[in-house]
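Suppose you are handed a protein chain with no further information: no name, no annotation, nothing but its sequence. What can you learn? This example shows the usual starting point.
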Amino acid sequence: MSAPIVEARHFWPAQNVLGEERDQPAHIRLDPVTYGYTIDKYPETAFVTAIALRQNKQDIIGLTQHAVAVLEVSTPDASSPTRAEDVRKTERRIKKIIARPLTDLSAENVEMRFNDGGCDPSGRMFAGSTNHSPGADGRGEFFRIEPDGKATRVFDKISCSNGLGWSPDSKTMCRCLNQLATPFSPSPRIFAPAPTPLDPSRPPQGVYDGLTVDGSGNVWAARWQDGRVMGFRPDGSLIVNIVTPKCLLPTIPCFGGEPFGVSTTLGTYPYSGDVFVVDFGPGSEMRKIVGEEWKGAERHRFAA
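A reasonable first move is to predict its three-dimensional structure. Written in structure tokens, the prediction is:
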């Protein structure tokens, strides 16, 4: 039996490029009630590729091109503009470098940089890199950053680190590895291989990108260039396909209470680069699919 298909609702015309777009490092913060938002830019780095909130702090943790850092941020209020033409980018600074763990920044690895990352339930930051230098495929690394800045390389020889989440019991880390979504262990188990196409008349498109794990242990992985987020049970079976209409490039799914949000990247389709939402609340179409006992989950925060 094929999995159901649910269409996400177009929520906000963010017009994102890539989160890690060169020379356009920025942090956008939106108030989902007023739709007021702020944009902070960071001229001290060529990239800001992933962020995490901090425990009891207003600033954030960010992965810059080569470092894990504390970044200043703005917070939208009642006076914040809601139209793109009225929003001005505010220059913000890197307040503190927590760690610089990348091991080989030689001339032949000029395109080495951080890509994706996130915090585990203990408040440690996990950060993965990618390397687009000529002939450098497989030179990426993956690090664990303690709150005191101590960095440990967990493993290396990866192409592009993408997607990161933890099971509710904190025992399993799940990440996207090239074409596959896998739980992390010394011998990782592949539980979500390349999917069947939504349209049987064409081959599967795209790759797995960002992911998140809900409070019931289900894994939600974006399929970049495939216009959908796929929901998997802990045993790897497919729950549902969430499609992003008029956009083929979903990148980062996350939960904000019961709503489920998906950010996308800029492309040639009308809603490329925008934000979509899906209602998981009681009585919703999604709640009927996942069950009334389903639980959402917030992203973990850095412990310092």
